Model the fold of this input.
Amino acid sequence: MARKHNLEQFDNKDYSKYINYLRNLEYSEYLKTEHWIHFRMEAKRWANYACQICNKDFDIDVHHKTYGNLGRETFRDVVVLCRECHHKHHEKLGEVI
Done:
């Protein structure tokens, strides 16, 4: 059974504890949290569901420009990219996604 990563598991809905919890998760686990799923959806909507480089409107990803604000990202911390531009970005950095 998958672990549920949500605010309800914290006593008194303690936001600072929840942020610390999010920041200490493995990145692959962080991407499964309610927080990230909701933020990713809002980032796509903010970008009009289109790649911010080529303007494609399908196969859209949200890429972190920085990992320093995990759990409290703003739209300045991410870029919305189509899958092709996302892969090209990581290839340029020598990363595999």
Notes: Residues 65 and 77 are 5 Å apart (CA to CA). The chain has one domain: 7-92. Strands lie at 60-64, 78-82. The mean pLDDT is 87.
